[in-house]
Structure formats: C-alpha cells, structure tokens
Design goal:
Layout (H helix, E strand, L loop, with lengths): L3 E2 L9 E4 L4 E2 L2 E2 L5 H5 L19 H11 L1 H6 L12 H9 L4 H8 L10 E6 L8 E6 L4 E7 L1 H7 L1 H6 L9 E4 L5 H10 L5 H5 L4 H14 L2 H13 L5 H12 L9 H4 L10 H14 L3 H18 L6 H29 L9 H27 L4 H8 L2 H7 L4 H20 L6 H17 L1 H7 L5 H13 L3 H18 L7 H13 L3 H8 L1
Parallel strand pairs: 2-5, 5-7, 6-8
Antiparallel strand pairs: 1-8, 3-4, 6-7
Helix pairs in contact: 2-4, 8-10, 10-11, 10-12, 14-16, 15-17, 16-17, 17-20, 18-21, 20-21, 20-23, 23-25, 24-25
C-alpha cells in the first residue's frame, strides 16, 4: 500500500483545477472524466492569473472562483459555500502574500513556467459541505487530487481506512497517500464506496479498467467492490488470449480471504476428473470417424496446429506415453481398414462393377490413407513416429496390392511413404537400419510408379523436399546397400526422366564415397 502521511496540502504555487460533478441520489458519483487526469499542462488555467488592475488582488480572485463554480451552483443552489471552501482557501492564501498588483507581478516574474507546476484536482463526495475529512492522493509528476470524503463511509467499506481511522486516530482530518500508481482509479474506487449498486457501475467498463479497479480495491480492502469486480469478470467475455492471461494472472494474485475467485477460474480450469489426454483421444477419434470432407479437413488442421503449440509444454511422461500408444492404436485400426479396402479393390472384376458399388470402397481408401497421413504428422511432431515406420515397412501385402489398383485410387498411399522418407531425412524419426532398408525395399518402387501423378495431381506434394528425403534416407544405409538402390534407381530415371524422383545429389555423394575418397583403405592402413 502506498505510504500514508498526516499532512496538509501544499499551498502557494500548486495549480488547482475544480471539477464539477453531477449530484445523484447516491451522493456525488465520483470519478471525473479520464480526460481530466490525462490532459496536458499546456492549457492555461485562468484561475491563477489575476488580471492587472488597480483594485486589491484578492477581489478578482474571488470573482474568478465564483464564476468557475457556476455549474455546481446551478445544480445545487444550497451547496454554494461548500464547494468553494475546498479550493478558494488556496487562492486566498496565495493572493494574500501580495500587497499590491505591482508587487504581485514582480514576484511572479522569476516563477517557473506553468507547465512545470504541480496540478491539483479537488473532488467532493456525498452531500456538499458535509465531508469531515480530506484524502490527498499524490501521483507522479506533481499531480494531486484532494478528496472531500466522510469518515464513516470510508471505515464501513474499506478495512485499510478503518485501520488508519481507528479510535486512536479518530480526530485526523487529512490523510495524504504518496506515490499512487493509478491515481485515476483510486478516485473512482473511493467513489464506488458511495454507490449502492457497484456492479451496475461496472457494466459499461472495459475488462482492463475493471482489473485496475480490482487491484486498488484489494489495496484498500474494499471487499464488496472486489466481489462486484469478480462477478463482472465471471460474466463478461474475455476478448483475445492476452486479455485472458491478464484476467487469470490478476485473479491468481488476489490474497484477500473470503473472496470467491473460483467462479472466474472455472472458465479456464475444470474440476471434473476426466484427464485431458482422454478428452484429446476422444477428439482424435471423432475426427478420424468423420465422413464430412470439409469439416474433417478443417478440424485436422486445427487439431494438428494446437498439438504443435502444446509440444513445447512439459507434460507427465506417463500421460504422453498413453496418448502416443492411443495414436498408434488408431494407426493400426486405419491400416487394417485400408488393407481390407485394397483387397476388395484388387479383386478380379471390381473395375467392371457399377460406379455406385465401387465408389464407397474408393472413398474409404482415400479416407483411411488421409487418416494415416494425419496420424503420422502427429507422431512426427511428438518424436514418436519410429513405431509407425516399423509398421509401414512390413506391409508387403499392401505394397503388392498397390500395383493392382488404378493410380488415381492408390496414390494416397504413396503420400504416406513420401512423408516417412522426408521425416527420416530431417531426423524427425530415427528407425533402425533394418527398418530403413526394408522401407526402401518395400515402398520405393511403388512411390516411383506414382511419382508422375503425385507431381501433377497432388497440390501438397513438394518434389524437392521428397527427393531430398529419399536421397538422405538411402545415404544412411551401408555403402553396398546405397549402391544397390541407386543403381536400380538409375535404370528407372534413365527411362522415365522427370516422371521419376531425381536423386542425383545422393548419387554424387555415393560416387564420392566409392571412387574419390574411400574411407576403408585409410582405416585399414591405420589398423596395420
């Protein structure tokens, strides 16, 4: 809490600004427009500039103050003496120091510019003229606010003021609060003590402003205001992730007992016993089982993006393993369904069936292949795709059936193979040498057969990335296996040209390893 001192408001050169405030049945609804606090010091205040005249300086000062108070006098004629009593004392004291106009001018000559002078705003709460104490708020850059308040109102609503205005200090008539960080909100929070329906006053406020009020209310021990702020935050929408983080962090910092923050935090935390991983698995299963193409495609993109965002957040090892195993289980289920559809599509006479009989099978092939590609992306992001590579490399039957289907139906499977090669080439998965060798032996030729279609019929296919992944995968094998695979590829490339993967870079590396700088001979000489 800011420092409290028992002192008087500085007299003399303090710039004073009287703020007319409308009277309501609840008393003065406190806070002036924020413009009052944010207004620059460049605007000249005529109250502190008496015009040169032959008359005594005190008389013009009184006349000017009376004109400034006209709005309040018109609204509450009986309260005319109460408002000027807050400020004119300063003016009269200021003016009384000058014996004449000439002397006054001479004294003002060396004074600093008006922009460098402190400012003071005088505000009165409750019925005019009935206040029994002053609270002076001292902000930054010499900004002062003098509040005319009532002890009983402050003590009833604020535990902070109740402690300061205890019986031992019941005769105190002025409290000075130094270094107020948010002087505007201090004023508004004190004004809320005069309102019967605090929550109604907050309805049109922004979330950020209510958070500021909540912070000051906590410092002042204004519990009813804090409760109203929490009720507001529980009901109002939070717009954007940044605003949500501000609300949650502010609520978690509250240290006051008896204030219920749980309703607000329920928006971002659940007391239900279901583990988040179980909910995530349920979402994945729903996406996999969807038959609506657009909805499935969009949700796959959203879930994959959100999972990638969560990949950097530490999680319990056991729960991560359970989720990965669930994804692997879904992969096996999709693969079983895909193999069954391939068997049906490879049966003799399938192409002679009516389109209405063939279409469900072909759609299911595309669906299951797309599901497997999506699950592979999830596993690759979680560094858990090695088991998928093992599973895929052992699908000799599927690879054999692959050649029996039209390329328009089977090319989705080659996309899975291409993604595995890219992942190995990038180091996203690290299958064993036997798995890599078996993967190339089983699926490289089917990929070459579909390569022309993939280039022209698949928009997401990136030829350079795939060719780099295939080449790097080949170069991870022993040199003799590299030679066997690359020589086989050379025959296909010389026949198909652009319709075959271009593995020239891998071929050059293998060539240098074999003919230009063989490592076996130097190694053998070292061993001798």
């Amino acid at each position: 809490m800011a420092e409290i001192r028992l002192t008087k408001v500085a007299q003399g050169q303090t710039k004073i600004r009287n703020v007319p405030i409308a009277v309501t049945p609840e008393g003065f609804w406190c806070c002036p427009s924020p413009v009052v606090f944010q207004k620059t010091l460049k605007a000249q205040n005529p109250l502190n500039k008496p015009k040169p005249s032959s008359s005594p300086p005190t008389a013009p000062t009184k006349t000017t103050v009376q004109k400034k108070q006209v709005p309040v006098t018109e609204k509450k004629p009986t309260s005319t003496p109460s408002r000027p009593a807050v400020v004119p004392d300063d003016h009269r004291t200021f003016a009384s120091d000058a014996p004449s106009v000439g002397t006054l001018v001479n004294e003002r000559a060396p004074r600093p510019k008006i922009e460098n002078l402190p400012r003071k705003v005088a505000i009165e709460f409750g019925e005019p003229g009935t206040s029994d104490m002053k609270v002076v708020l001292m902000g930054k850059q010499g900004f002062y606010v003098k509040l005319s308040v009532h002890k009983n109102v402050l003590m009833e609503n604020s535990s902070f003021f109740a402690d300061k205005l205890s019986e031992e200090q019941s005769r105190l008539s002025c409290l000075e609060i130094e270094d107020c960080e948010d002087i505007e909100i201090y004023v508004e929070t004190v004004g809320l003590m005069y309102c019967k329906e605090t929550k109604q006053r907050l309805i049109k406020q922004s979330v950020s402003r209510v958070l500021r009020i909540l912070k000051v209310a906590e410092l002042l021990g204004f519990k009813s205001c804090m409760q109203s702020c929490l009720e507001y935050l529980e009901a109002v929408p939070w717009v954007g992730e940044e605003e949500e983080e501000k609300v949650v962090s502010s609520i978690l910092r509250l240290q006051v007992e008896g204030i219920g923050v749980t309703p607000v935090l329920k928006r971002v935390s659940s007391e239900v016993g279901n583990h988040p991983k179980e909910t995530l698995v349920h979402i994945v299963e729903q996406v996999l089982n969807s038959s609506e193409e657009r909805g499935r495609r969009e949700m796959k993109s959203i879930v994959l993006k959100l999972l990638r965002e969560n990949s950097g957040i530490p999680s319990h090892a056991g729960s991560a393993d359970i989720f990965n195993e669930t994804i692997h289980s879904s992969c096996r289920s999709c693969l079983v369904s895909l193999l069954s559809m391939f068997r049906q599509a490879a049966e003799p006479g399938f192409t002679d069936k009516p389109m209405e009989n063939r279409e469900p099978v072909l759609k299911q092939i595309a669906l299951e292949a797309d599901n497997l590609s999506w699950l592979l992306e999830i596993l690759a992001d979680r560094q858990a795709a090695d088991a998928f590579a093992v599973m895929w490399s052992t699908q000799q039957e599927l690879a054999t059936l692959h050649t029996k289907l039209p390329i328009v139906s089977r090319h989705h499977v080659s996309c899975i193979t291409a993604r595995l090669f890219v992942g190995i080439g990038r180091g996203e998965l690290l299958p064993s040498k036997d798995t890599r060798q078996l993967l190339l032996q089983t699926w490289l030729q089917p990929l070459i057969n579909d390569y022309s279609w993939l280039q022209h019929g698949c928009r997401s296919f990136d030829r350079k990335v795939v060719e780099e992944g295939i080449g790097r995968t080949i170069l991870t094998l022993p040199l003799e296996d590299q030679q066997s695979i690359l020589l086989s590829w050379l025959g296909s490339f010389l026949k198909a040209g652009d319709n075959c993967p271009n593995l020239q870079r891998a071929f050059e590396v293998w060539w240098r390893r074999t003919f230009i700088r063989p490592y076996v001979e130097p190694r053998g000489s070292l061993m001798q």
